[in-house]
Design goal:
4 copies of one chain form a homotetramer. The first copy, chain A, is an alpha+beta fold. Chain A contains 14 helices and 10 strands. Chain A is globular. Chains A and B meet through helix 12 and helix 13 of A and helix 12 and helix 13 of B.
């Protein structure tokens, strides 16, 4: 009975959050650097929560696919750690960057080693590790299959229009890759890692699919349906720590302060948030705040955390 | 029976950690910028853990007082939030700084607003809020009484030699204060806030006393002995979030990654670490690592977290 | 006959420049950080040129005293080089700073050594050298006597109101001094150097007096009336080089590009410009451009350089 | 008779300088980032001076060709100013950078506009202007013909091995170009401008040839043999101003202070220095000082300036 009530209460919370967000007048600014992102309406809002018991709870546009963009960095980081373990950390740091997501300044000061795997430079290094000298096409297929497996959903796709648009405009990422190559921190064939990077960012998932894909992170690294150990419990906790510390660019401190849950945002307006042992949450609203994170998505997660008490800093958790 | 076992196991863990740390050949470098700190032997190691049930567990030099230095910033932040609540955040930010504890660069770029209350500039603003135009002597007394009350221990003192040494050499802090004053972010009488700052850093506590003082932070803001609400549960979680995000200067990401517990370090070699709902922990070893945090103290907390599973990212917590 | 014509032509040029500047609609922004500067009318414009033959040519408000502010740094640099010669360069650099006049960032990156003697931090170190452990009052008298001697004019004064206002508001300079002290690059008694610095900036000269004071810099270091060697020919050329490279903060490149004459500006709107072997020029108009240099003063010097061919890059010079 | 004496004295000065440099034990470090540069012996030293009367004076290895590298930036800047005049300055600044030649930090802070045309980023923009949408091969031919014309010497070549090596290793320059492209400050086809840039840097000239090529800069922009106006007198003075302000990266202040002559250095160890109206000077020694400028070349020019009185800050010039 208690479980039923709790679940009913969660559905009521999500419903109330959805109503509040649907009515919100200030919805942030949709990313406009590529046409495919610019044409998405800021009116969208969706949320999906998957509990430890496997139950799925959604509200709003929870089944509309969107471009997950930087949220994909969580999945490629997992793949890179699977392949190379802690060797990865000789090529990328684990500290908050204190600057914007595409900053090149820090790279110069620190000899081509990106501060963490969630700023663009760090994610490009991670893509280089995942690529591992293979053909980009093969690695792109690997990433897509990995995310489908995590989400138990073969319908997930990569939006090639988005990927090609990013490749055609992402000169700052090309600059970052070449800059790191000049320090010896990239395979000489940077085009390959960049191609993978542009394609992983173009992964198209709905909130439901994204929350499904994130289940292993609330579950100590184990796939809840197959029982497969995707990654060790220790590394799972470390990925969650990185999400909390660095998952929202230079708005990470604010997010930890207000929401208190590990999360990773993308400029498509999606956020994946993990309550260890409790819930895998995906939220989506395309309008961004000044730090480049989903404005309503952040508000929604703050509401959800307040209503449920979900916070890694909560003593009763 | 189970409780007894768990407690016995904790004592065994602390004992093993103490033995390992006593034998550690690499002990870091003792801070030498003032004579009182420089003369402390790097051989010291102490740890104290207070559980939610009030039981106290110690090993090593847990009853030797040391200069808590920047750990004091947690207590003055609590006092400032008591006084002014969220108004504080118009004068100090909540983001990791991405640079060293005494950096002045960020202040210039961001118009005199320190990134967070745990870098020196931010803590000086917090001291200015605590001082609130009063006489420094009175405010110093307030801080001392507050910490004694938190720890339920009237024997806690401020080491005036340390305070005076810091006042006589802390020119960079004088520079920070005047720099913020030039932006209008300090009371014109900066000497008062600086005097308070130098004295709070000179608070002298043992590991046992420090862990006692930190109990309210594991206990949703309530003093476990008196039942007094020191600060609201929400603000308590936020202080813990700030400790995790910013408590170890530009080694905060590393600490969150390895230990996963909110903590605040000081150059005297002390660290206060909080496991919400579980434990208040103090550890002390004077030798520092390259980021200015206690080398063995950090190792000890990593060992403790591994052995106990205490991590805010642990699903079973 | 030719000399008479050249002189007549110079007077005509100055007269035309004065007329153009009197009519200029865009006059820049008067510095307003202290009341004494803020109340000066932007309508003022004055210019004085002293040729190698000693003849004096003026136009506009050439006899109205104004606060020379940072132009004074040229004179205290001369005094410091008289005292210590090239030893000075262990405490202050000789490179353009690439940043604003009161930037503290560069100091952090370069261990408390200011980039050059004309940014505020560098000038404060120079004042510390001039002070040399003496009483500030005595050193202030020395500087005043030195400038009077250079200008052959006992009527020059220091405006104590300006000096006191700057002392009461110059917290950023207090910050710079304490910051350098923390690196050991200031005498511990920073108040003395700051007092001297605030008073030298409050020197009050007319264009005529300032051009007179600058004569030694066009004359290989020798006072043209007394024949006294103020400073060696080599050091004179080096002071002129520093003025060209660093005399207009981060507008120095632009000034060298457009005007091509060594010059030093101040926020009071004055500029001292030196054509080696030819002319000592002072210009004054209180409105500043975006880089903090006199807007009309800069225009006037560009006009003068174009009309006379005075440029250190002119082959016919 | 006087002319003969002066000339004889110059030959004696060059001879003495050559002897001193031949014997110098500390010769700096040869650039080693590409094999073609690394294999050049640091024992080389050469100097060539061309006076306004056309007489040529040399000492040492004045007829050994070397890779002029960044000295070429002076010639492409001249070509870009010929083509577009002051429009160029909307894409590149005129201020000293205050940082290293290949710094990317400043670009981020200033929206993709390089500080000046002599840092790498600025020179790449200049090459983009020179290319002007043409085929790189054609533009490379234009630059080669231009330098041959300036030097009146058809034997000058581009070392394709050097150009190809730079293309194969110059990833930081690729990063700079893409970074500026992301700000819209490069033609999308960055490969073309980079190809031109790598080839202009591979121009191979002896001191004699380089001093010949620089004659127009001492001669108000006019080719002394053909009488052709290469560039206007005003722009000539401005190029010389830029050389003085920015020609030696973040050693420019030091060079202006010690030598006082507009100059441009290259990592091949060459320096072109211009005494307006007097002399075009080329010096070469492959070992570099800490700022990346020829160590003995700089010393030699300081000796030459002292012995001849050549300095733009010299009143008797």
């Amino acid at each position: 009975v208690e479980v039923v009530e709790r679940v009913n209460r969660l559905d009521a919370i999500l419903s109330a959050i959805n109503a509040e967000m649907a009515a919100a007048p200030e919805r942030g600014t949709v990313a406009d650097y590529i046409p495919s992102l610019a044409k998405v309406s800021p009116d969208h809002f969706g949320i999906a929560v998957i509990l430890a018991d496997g139950s799925i709870h959604t509200a709003g546009d929870a089944d509309t696919p969107f471009s997950i963009q930087s949220v994909s960095k969580v999945f490629t980081l997992t793949m890179a750690l699977q392949k190379h373990g802690d060797e990865l950390w000789s090529r990328v740091g684990r500290e908050p960057s204190g600057s914007a997501f595409n900053s090149i300044v820090q790279l110069e000061n620190e000899g081509g080693i990106p501060r963490n795997p969630f700023i663009n430079a760090g994610a490009i290094v991670v893509s280089d590790v995942v690529l591992d000298g293979a053909e980009p096409r093969a690695a792109i297929g690997d990433v897509l299959r990995f995310v489908r497996m995590l989400a138990s959903d073969e319908a997930i796709t990569i939006d090639n229009d988005v990927a090609n648009s990013e490749a055609a405009t992402g000169f700052r990422n090309v600059a970052l890759a070449n800059y790191m190559k000049s320090f010896g921190n990239m395979d000489p064939y940077v085009e390959g890692a960049l191609k993978l990077y542009f394609h992983q960012c173009a992964l198209s998932l709905s909130c439901r699919q994204l929350a499904m894909a994130g289940r292993y992170l609330m579950n100590d690294g184990t796939h809840p349906q197959t029982g497969e150990a995707i990654i060790s419990p220790l590394l799972t906790r470390r990925i969650n720590a990185l999400m909390l510390m660095c998952g929202h660019y230079d708005g990470s401190g604010e997010f930890a302060f207000r929401v208190g849950i590990p999360g990773k945002s993308g400029v498509g307006g999606g956020i994946l948030a993990i309550v260890p042992g409790r819930a895998s949450i995906a939220v989506w609203s395309p309008g961004l705040n000044a730090r480049g994170n989903s404005k309503l998505g952040t508000h929604a997660l703050e509401r959800l955390a307040d209503a449920t008490g979900w916070s890694v800093f909560m003593p009763t958790l």
